[in-house]
Write a structure and sequence with these properties.
Blueprint: E1 13-19, E2 22-27, H1 38-53, E3 59-64, E4 69-71, H2 76-81, H3 84-87, E5 105-107, E6 114-116, H4 141-164, E7 169-173, E8 176-178, H5 180-187, E9 190-193, E10 198-200, H6 214-217, H7 225-234, E11 238-239, H8 240-246, E12 251-252, H9 259-274, H10 278-292, H11 296-310, H12 315-324
Parallel strand pairs: 2-3, 3-7, 4-8, 7-9, 8-10, 9-12
Antiparallel strand pairs: 1-2, 5-6, 10-11
Helix pairs in contact: 1-4, 4-5, 10-11
């Protein structure tokens, strides 16, 4: 497979390659605790689509820049100044010229060309000027709902681009992991955290039901529905040990000094996965995600169809020969 075009660039994300076949995406707004503004989430699908299709990438590490936060979630200051959380959809003000009786024009239904409202006597349009619209009107609820629906689903799709990425993603969490940070980490395949990590589903504290993925994914990622409702309804913080106990993270990395220790562990994990067949790894992620939302019977059927193609790979023979010879296998790019 040919290498895709060069990666998209964004001032809000650092992209590096710390190991062969390993990409590191770092959220880069540390002066604002990596809080998200609209250009940041709009950049996500472009970045992860590139990584998903790059043959030179087999594993992705996602982390936050700076010592204080993975991400504090949505930038509330920015969101409180503009956007649908505050304003809804602004109404379109009438044109200043709409109240003029002599200069305003409207299309001629026959010729589709403008004509003045004041026509020569005897023309069909004499005294046909429509009344001017009211100076202002409240937004139409149906149109407002449609605009908000588009905004929400676009935001959802941007965050879901991580989950749809073909390559496994390990999220390295430290410091604050609030709101959107929980959404993003739930789209990753593996989550590890530093002992100082503080989590919260904060949307209820700003008058919202979380709508970007946490309410749909958290209950499928941990065993206790009671705990999920507790943290989502109260917006309370929970720490790294509680996250580990409930199964939200795979491990709390105690050694290595917080974030640095987590990154070392993520690199170790990523390196071990890159040694596996990319056909097997990407197939495993696809089958796990697909089966999560369906019955066992449906999952088995999809797995059978998937492997009817995947088992034809040369990687299986290479892996078996390497195991017998007690050596590491080398696999082609995918």
């Amino acid at each position: 497979m040919a290498e895709p075009s060069s990666p998209p660039t964004s001032e809000y994300f650092n992209l590096t390659y710390p190991l062969p076949f390993v990409a590191h995406v770092e959220i880069n707004r540390p002066d604002k605790l990596n809080a998200f503004i609209e250009p940041m989430w709009l950049a996500l699908p472009h970045l992860f689509s590139y990584l998903s299709t790059s043959p030179s990438v087999r594993v992705i590490i996602l982390s936050g820049a700076g010592p204080k936060a993975f991400t504090a979630g949505l930038d509330i200051v920015a969101a409180s100044q503009t956007g649908p959380l505050v304003q809804g959809v602004p109404t379109q003000s009438p044109s200043p010229s709409s109240s003029s009786s002599s200069s305003t024009t409207t299309p001629d239904a026959t010729t589709n060309t403008p004509f003045p409202y004041s026509q020569p006597t005897g023309t069909p349009y004499t005294n046909q000027k429509p009344p001017p619209p009211p100076p202002s009107m409240p937004p139409d609820p149906a149109r407002l709902a449609r605009a908000l629906l588009t905004h929400i689903t676009t935001f959802q799709d941007c965050v879901s681009s991580l989950e749809k990425c073909a390559k496994p993603i390990i999220a390295v969490l430290h410091g604050y992991c609030y709101g959107l940070g929980v959404d993003l980490s739930l789209c990753a395949d593996v989550r590890i955290c530093a002992p100082d990590t503080r989590f919260a589903v904060k949307e209820v504290d700003i008058g919202l039901a979380a709508d970007i993925g946490t309410l749909s994914r958290l209950g499928k990622s941990v065993a206790s529905a009671s705990w999920v409702k507790d943290v989502c309804l109260t917006g309370r913080e929970f720490d790294a040990n509680e996250a580990l106990r409930m199964g939200f993270v795979s491990s709390v990395v105690e050694q290595g000094g917080g974030k640095e220790g987590c990154m070392a562990e993520a690199l170790r994990w990523a390196g071990s996965v890159t040694e596996k067949s990319p056909v097997a790894v990407q197939g495993t992620k696809e089958l796990l995600n697909w089966s999560r939302d369906r019955s066992v019977e449906d999952g088995l059927r999809y797995t059978a169809v998937w492997n009817s193609a995947a088992l034809q790979t040369r990687d299986t023979g290479a892996a078996m020969k390497a195991a017998v010879g007690k050596r590491k296998a080398r696999f082609e790019k995918l």
